Each structure stands twice: as C-alpha cells, then as structure tokens.
Amino acid sequence: MSQAPKILSVEELPTSEAKWVTLKKIHWSDPEGKQRTWECAERTTRGSSGIDAVAILAILRSESNAFRPSTVIVEQFRAPVGKFVVELPAGLIDEGETAEDAAIRELEEETGFKAKRVLESSPLQVCDPGMTTANMKLVAVDVPFPDQLEVSEQKLDAGEFITTRIVELPKLAAELKEYEKKGYVVDARLSHFASGYEMAEKLRNMSF
User: Fold this and answer.
1) Residue 189 carries which DSSP code?
2) DSSP for 88-147?
3) Fewest CB within a 10 Å sphere: which of 105, 131, 133, 162?
4) What does the alpha-carbon distance between residue 182 and residue 162 come to, in Å, rounded to a whole number?
5) Of 133, 56, 41, 140, nearest to 93 (Cα)?
C-alpha cells in the first residue's frame, strides 16, 4: 500500500559523510582588488566530460497530425524542498557518456519514450551560480509517432518514484499555473521554457 512521502527529520550532515556533494570555501578578488570569500556546494560525481547533468525537452509529435505537438513532464517528491516538484525529465551524465546520449537514455528510463534524434543541444549552463558549481545541458529531442500518441512503460531504478504527464505545448504555461494552485513546486528550467514559449506566441500574434 503506497503512502504520501514526507520529511521525517533533518539534521546537519558532516562533510565526511556526504556521498554526492561537498562544501567549498572560495577566496577571490573583486574588480576593486578587495579579497573576498564565498561558500558553495560542489558535486563529487562530475565525470571527465565536465558536465554534471542533462535536462530533456522532448517534442512529441504526430506525423499524421493526429495530436498537437506536446512534451512530457515529470512529477516527483524532492526531499530538499519537502514537496512534489514538476520538472523536465533529467539525470546525471555517466562517465564516458555525452550529454546527448544521456538525454536519450534518461528520457527512455524516466518516461518510456525513445527519441529518434537530437534537435538541439544547449551550451553549458549553470543552475544556481550563487550557491553551487552544478552545471548541465538542455537537450531537445524529437519523439515522432506515425499517428496517435502511444505511451510506453518506464524503466525506473529501485527507489525512483516518477509520474509522467503529457502536455500540449500551447497549454504548458497554463498547466504549470494549475500545478502551483495544487501545492506543487515548478522547476525553474521548466517554468522558464513555458514562459518563453508563451511569450513567443504572444509576440507572433502581437496579443499582449
């Protein structure tokens, strides 16, 4: 019987016990030559590619126009914020793997959808540069269907609890607003994409 996830307790984590992140103290000089210090978190899992992770924008489309261009988003409980978060599919890049290969692999594992090709791969992006060294790439992939949309089975690892949702691209921004009303937190990358898409449509139609 499943139950709602919840935070049971929070405690300080000694650096010596941390498996995934570490804290760093940075000494730097500002434009006036004044010495300053800064604290940040750093992933310990970064491979030789120099890229931590990938976020995937999957474009789901029908070659017969049976449904409108859509994308897949995921819902999962994120312990650091203590809430369910709505995100783009994403994951860490394995050693020896490119961001593009990781995007195709992670998309299939988290959602069951298999991309046919990479449409675009972003330059290296930083996620929260005032807090962490974490970086990533955003990879857009093409997921075509001959006709109707077909949902495939996820390939989740043990301990992963991810729910997928298919949303038509023109309805994405409105759908995310509904998530906020239900108490979900929307990931910044997904929110920014939805806002950009909505703004592009307004500019194209000049409807403000």
Assistant:
1) H
2) --EEEPPTT--HHHHHHHHHHHHHS---SEEEEEPPPEES-TTTB--EEEEEEEEEEESS
3) 131
4) 18
5) 56
Burial class (CB within 10 angstroms; exposed 0-12, middle 13-18, buried 19+) of 104: buried
| Cβ-based burial of 136 (10 A; exposed 0-12, middle 13-18, buried ≥19) | buried
Whole-angstrom CA distances from 116 to 1, 60, 96, 104, 192 are 37, 11, 21, 9, 25
As a whole number of angstroms, the distance between CA 131 and CA 44 comes to 15
Contact 162, 72 (CB under 8 A): no
Dihedral sign computed on CA atoms, order 77, 83, 87, 92: negative
Question: What is the value of pTM for the model shown?
Answer: 0.92
Residue 205: phi and psi, rounded to 5, are -95, -5
Per-residue pLDDT reduced to its tens digit, 129-173: 999 999 999 999 999 999 999 988 899 888 889 999 999 999 999
Delineate the domains of the chain, giving CATH numbers in brackets: 46-205 (3.90.79.10)
